Amino acid sequence: MEDTDVEATFKRATDYLPHLLAKTEVDSDSLLYLYARFKQASEGKCCSGKPSFFEFQARKKWEAWNSLGEKSQADAKLEYIDKISELDPEWMESAGPRKSKCLCFRTCCRVWSNFLQFSFSDP
Q: What's the number of domains the chain is made of?
């Protein structure tokens, strides 16, 4: 896949996530996986401070992102696309042509805030 194709497909996949979450239950490990890849793809290596022990959800999200280390943004985009395809093999047909020009996680995936409020269970 060429860089421009990866970028366009990644944007479509991020736009599709709220629709996926509305039609199917996605487990917390998959959500963390997607969150980490989105952050890595959008911002690069995690350079924010580790949340405190008492900020359990924020800490889990930080750990997922930080665990990616030096993974390239391009690889993170491809892994994000692959995970969306694993969760919904027909998503490309369902997503239709990209309409939104949103580039920001909070705007593009605002629905995530509702879904990331669940409590994570310890392994």
A: 1
